């Protein structure tokens, strides 16, 4: 890999490019230009070239990129050339939704254990997974060599859930609770805020109203 | 507003800054520097200043920003100085999770109608909302002056759901289905991909393994 200091925005776009390339590949398309990728995902062609340049030389001038090669390469960069086992805590509505979310499996993510401390949920079945008590987490983590935990509990339980994940030696946490949690520096933590994208919509609708009212 | 051409990444960060300022305000903190904001949300101080500069002059050199003023201003820019009514289609697990998601209400988003075409779901109650058939959408949109629709249906139904929203004159759509949908140019569309952030984690875990193996 060319450099370890890749901006997170580049990694995010790489994930989007990778999905776009998968779609092209499924359609049987074999070559693609940076312009096509740019148009398909809504960024500039220069941005696509700049993002890919972090990881080396791709494509042939005037010919473009080989779809399958670039798709596999982006998947490899993102760590998606193998499957990942996820531990999920929180068997509420969001937990159910995540367990049945087709987008995870499509990218090689498999939820291998669902945990809750609510006695009314323990023992229930979500798809082919039984909801386990938190005490069973170490066993499942070891069995599947899981490194990533997903937090889908109410905000008030998010920090203690993160603490348990850290104690159980998970290395990365994806937090869906709309609250800030603290973890040691060696843990990779990202928050999924479900309303950030809503606010891009309201920002744009606001601009639109402003435009109309200034006519 | 200074300029209409604000990069989407700036709007996204503004949404994050705004939440951070709300937290400071709740704690009773009255002034903040760009350095504090930067550290609190994980970007550089220069980035914070650059992002805010799109919207005019803020803060006093050597004193910093007034938390309450900047919080209100960022909320106003994002269109969050008033409430937004959301229409939700899809009363499955994800729909339930979104209806009960505390993060929406905290930012002034209220789901005012839940719709599904599944007869086994219509008439059911999610919190204080009854699940309505799709035919009732125009009535609810008019009643609440809703402009934004949220798609929480399975991928195979996402496009037809978007078409119905467009036909019913919604102006913006937030799509949670892991599939590309097409809408006319005048519709604001954003997709929430639940696995993009997971892929940032796997990218970083990949770098880590690489580092370890090269020791």
From TrEMBL, chains A, B:
Location of the DNA-binding region in this protein: 16-55
UniProt cross-references to HAMAP family, sorted A to Z: Rex (MF_01131)
Residues the entry annotates as binding NAD(+): 90-95
Keyword field: Cytoplasm, DNA-binding, NAD, Repressor, Transcription, Transcription regulation
GO molecular function terms listed in the Swiss-Prot or TrEMBL record: DNA binding; DNA-binding transcription factor activity
Stretches assigned to the CoA-binding domain: 79-180
Keyword Transcription regulation: yes
Lineage: superkingdom: Bacteria
Biological role stated in the UniProt entry: Modulates transcription in response to changes in cellular NADH/NAD(+) redox state.
GO-annotated biological processes: negative regulation of DNA-templated transcription; response to redox state
Organism classification: Bacteria, Bacillati, Bacillota, Clostridia, Eubacteriales
GO CC terms in record: cytoplasm
InterPro entries per the UniProt record, alphabetical: CoA-bd, NAD(P)-bd_dom_sf, Rex_actinobacterial-type, Rex_DNA-bd_C_dom, Tscrpt_rep_Rex, WH-like_DNA-bd_sf, WH_DNA-bd_sf
Annotated protein name in UniProt: Redox-sensing transcriptional repressor Rex
Pfam families: CoA_binding, Put_DNA-bind_N
Subcellular compartments: Cytoplasm
Similarity remark: Belongs to the transcriptional regulatory Rex family.
Quaternary structure and partners: Homodimer.
Keyword Cell wall biogenesis/degradation found: no
């Amino acid at each position: 890999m060319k450099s370890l200091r890749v901006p997170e925005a580049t990694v995010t776009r790489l994930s989007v490019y990778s999905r776009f390339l998968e779609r092209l590949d499924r359609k049987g398309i074999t070559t693609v230009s940076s312009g096509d990728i740019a148009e398909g995902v809504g960024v500039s062609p220069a941005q696509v070239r700049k993002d890919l340049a972090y990881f080396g030389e791709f494509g042939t001038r005037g010919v473009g990129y080989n779809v399958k090669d670039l798709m596999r390469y982006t998947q490899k960069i993102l760590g998606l050339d193998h499957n990942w086992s996820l531990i999920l805590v929180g068997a509420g509505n969001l937990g159910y939704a995540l367990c049945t979310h087709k987008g995870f499996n499509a990218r090689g993510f498999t939820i291998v254990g669902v945990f809750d401390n609510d006695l009314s949920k323990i023992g229930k079945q979500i798809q082919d997974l039984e909801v386990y008590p938190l005490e069973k987490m170490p066993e499942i983590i070891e069995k599947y060599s899981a490194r990533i935990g997903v937090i889908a509990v109410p905000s008030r339980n998010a920090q203690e859930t993160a603490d348990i994940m850290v104690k159980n030696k998970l290395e990365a946490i994806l937090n869906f609770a709309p609250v800030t949690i603290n973890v040691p520096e060696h843990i990779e933590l990202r928050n999924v805020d479900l309303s950030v994208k809503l606010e891009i919509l309201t920002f744009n609708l606001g601009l639109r109203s402003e435009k109309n009212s200034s006519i």
